[in-house]
Amino acid sequence: MVSRTAPEQPRLVSVLDRWLWPSFAFLSLCWFVPGGINDWTSGVLHRQILLAGALLLGLPLEYLYLSRRVSWLWLRANPAPIIALAFGIWTLVASGASEYPIESLTGTLQHGDFGAIWYSGLSLAFIGVYLNTRRVPGAARRLTLGVVLAGIVLAVLALLEVLLGRPLIIASSKVPVATFLGPGHLAGALVLAAGLALGMLGTRVVAALAPTFLLAVALGATMTRTGPLALGVVFLLLALLIGRRYWRRLALGVLVTGGGIMLGIQLANAPKVVERQDVRDVGDATSLRTRALLAGAAIEGIADRPLFGFGGGNAFASDWYRYMSREELAEFLVLDHGFTHFAEVVDN
């Protein structure tokens, strides 16, 4: 009797199986065109091309795997792809219901916004990654490696920008931004990388804390409020998942991360650094008030259009003022834009 073994995959297919999605994760965070300062709009366009290429290469590799396993039992045990697909479809439908359907669907390069096509594409990318991690041994570890390495690159760029007082990759009036539009966007990427690095606390303490410290220093240097808050949520989730078995490691992670954030804040406020740039005061009551006014407008907008919202992209940017009273709008424009007589303009 002749035994039959499964045929070996072609080398190219094997390489794509192992490294396509980790490479996409790395490049989507660190992508830039060498040679001078880039405009953010070019980064938006290039990331969209990068996503399209990843989908064209990656989804066919997952199709055969999915087609052999789709059943009601499999879907009940793996609801994530259906949820992601539903979200992608919802973004497209919401764009059709928007007052600005084209802008909502495609985004605007003029303002550097992504649209519903991008978000639905990311939903498909999530499905590809999800299936890949269940099909290819070690895929989740390589994906984590890609994101953490990207975070390290971003952290180094961010710290260099803070020390030099100027952007290195993307044209911006603020630093650090690395390969993103602003410090807040960069902070989100750093938190993502730090969260995945901290996920290794249960198995590899040094491999988890060494990059986390660097990422925390860069996060502190961004001088954002939401970044440390998001990391606090990460630690809360880790406490629920591994806290009972690894509470000492988790406590060490809190100390290392907190120390890194404080070091980054001190670095951004060092006298020689302050001389080269305007350092944001995260405790500024004016900034807090403008955020509160925008949050109130967002809540009113959600209440007004709870199902489809305003579509993808940055369509709400054209309507937010409608959800403020005259007094709130006047206060916002005075605080955020420095106008001193806008109350009279609004009243008129």
What does this protein look like?
This protein has 348 residues and is an all-alpha fold. Helices cover 69% and strands 0% of the residues. It has helices spanning 11-30, 40-67, 72-77, 80-97, 101-106, 116-135, 139-164, 183-198, 205-221, 226-242, 247-268, 271-276, 285-304, 326-337, 342-347. It is globular and about 75 Å long. It starts with 10 loop residues before the first helix and ends with a helix. Mean pLDDT is 84; it is low at 1-6.
Mean pLDDT: 84
What is the CA-atom radius of gyration, in angstroms? 23 Å
Main sheet record:
none
Helix content: 55-70%
Beta-strand content estimate: under 5%
Number of helices: 15
User: What overall form do the CA principal axes indicate?
Assistant: globular
Which residues sit in consecutive blocks of at least 5 with pLDDT less than 50? 1-6
Structural class: mainly alpha
The H/E string reads HHHHHHHHHHHHHHH
Tell me the number of strands.
0
Keywords:
globular, 348 residues, mainly alpha, single chain
Brief synopsis:
The protein has 348 residues and is mainly α. It has helices spanning 11-30, 40-67, 72-77, 80-97, 101-106, 116-135, 139-164, 183-198, 205-221, 226-242, 247-268, 271-276, 285-304, 326-337, 342-347.
Question: Layout of helices and strands, plus pairs?
Answer:
Layout: H1 11-30, H2 40-67, H3 72-77, H4 80-97, H5 101-106, H6 116-135, H7 139-164, H8 183-198, H9 205-221, H10 226-242, H11 247-268, H12 271-276, H13 285-304, H14 326-337, H15 342-347
Helix pairs in contact: 1-2, 1-7, 2-6, 4-6, 7-8, 7-9, 8-9, 8-10, 9-11, 10-11, 13-14
